Amino acid sequence: MPNTLGDNHVKGLAFETLALHGTRTNADKTGALTTPIYQSATFAHPGVGRSTGFDYSRLQNPTRQALEETVATLEGGDDAIAFTTGMAAIACLMELFAPGDHIIASDDLYGGSVRLFSAVSGKNGIDVSYVDTSDIGAARAAIRPNTKAMFVETPTNPMMIVSDVAALAGICKESGCLLIVDNTFLTPYLMKPIALGADIALHSGTKYLGGHNDALAGFLVTARPELSERLRYLYKTTGACIGPMDAYLVLRGIKTLPVRMDRQQGNAMEIARWLKEQTRRADPAVTAVYYPGLDDHPGLELSKRQASGFGAMISFTMKDEALAHGVLERVRVVQFAESLGGIESLITYPTMQTHADVPPEVKEARGITSKLLRLSVGIENIKDLKADLEQAIYGESQT
Ligand SMILES: *Cc1c(COP(=O)(O)O)cnc(C)c1O
Fold first, then answer.
1. Which of 6, 217, 274, 276 lies at a C-alpha separation of 20 to 30 Å from 33?
2. Is the pTM of this model over 0.90?
3. Distance between Cα 206 and ligand 1 center (Å)
4. Cα(177)–Cα(195) distance, integer angstroms
C-alpha cells in the first residue's frame, strides 16, 4: 500500500512529522486522516491467480501494514514486522537459530527474554551466554566460532547500563554474527540502532510506541531484505500477527510519541536529580539512583553520542526492603504496576515482578535486590509526581 506522502517526500521530513503523517495511506478514498481498522480475516480475489495484494490477515492486513511501514520508516529499517507482543517478536526471532548455535546476550536483560532463552531456546539446543556488553573487550572475548548473534539492551532493564551499539556492530561484523538491539527503552525517537550498525532492532510496542497502556505489540525491524524475507516466512508460518484493532491503537500512539517522550524524559530528569539529592541526606532513605542522564552515570557520555535523549526509566535503591515495600504501598499518583513507557507513571518491583524468574544469585550479583525499585515516568505534572514520591518515601508527616 503506497504511502500518500511518497518516498521522495518522506526523505526530507523530520521524525515528528513522519510519526504523524507516515501512517496516512491512500487505501481509503474518503480522505480519512486515520487509518481504518480492517477487521477482516480474509480478502476476496478478483480472479484466478489474482490478488488485491491482501489474501488472508495472517499474511497481510492493511491496518497492520500501515503500522509496519510507519515503524520501518521511523527506525530507518528496510522492513518492520508487527507481532502480538514483544515476546512473540523475540520468540519468532529465535527461530532464525538452530541447535548448536551460540548467542551472546547482555547480562542485564528484560526478565522475559532471560526466561525465553532458558526455558525455550535452551531446550532447542541454542546456547546463550551472558556478558556485560558495556565492556567491549568482554563482548569480543565471548565470541565463539558458532556465535550467530549478539542480543543487546541499552540502557538495560532495570540497571540502566549503556552499551556502545556502533562498537558492538563493528565486532559483530568482524565475526559474521548478527547484532540485535532491543530498542524498547529509547524508541527510534531517541536512538536508531540500525543507523548505528545493528542488523535487527526490536521492540515491545506495548511500551512507548503504543504509549497508553491499552494494547500489546511487538516489532522486529530489519536492516536488509534477506533478513526480512527469512523473518516474514517464519512470521506467516508461526502466526503471532498483531490484530487490526491493536495495530490501530499502536499507530495512534505513535502519532504522539515525540511529544510524550519529550515530556516523560523531562519529568524523568527532574525526578532522577531529586532522588539523587535524597541520597545525600544523613542516613538516606534512597541509597542509589540509576539514570543515564545523571552526571555520575558511567553511560552519560556514550548516551550523548549514540542517542538524542536518556529516556524516562529510572531505577533506584532504598535503604532496606521494608522501605521499598512501603514506597510501593504508599504511592497514589504513581501506580504500582508492571510495564513501562505509557503516559501514566508506574513503579515496579523488579525482583518480584519483571525479573521474578531470574535465579536469585544472578539477581543479587546484578543489583536486582529486594531494595531496588524501577520507575517509568509518565506525563503527569512534575509537582504532583515529586510530592507523591516524597510522601511515599518519607511518609505524610514530613512533607
Ligand atoms: C516489555 C519488554 C519486552 C516484552 O514485551 P511484551 O510486549 O511485554 O511481550 C521486551 N523487552 C523489553 C525491554 C521490555 O521492556
1. 217
2. yes
3. 7
4. 17
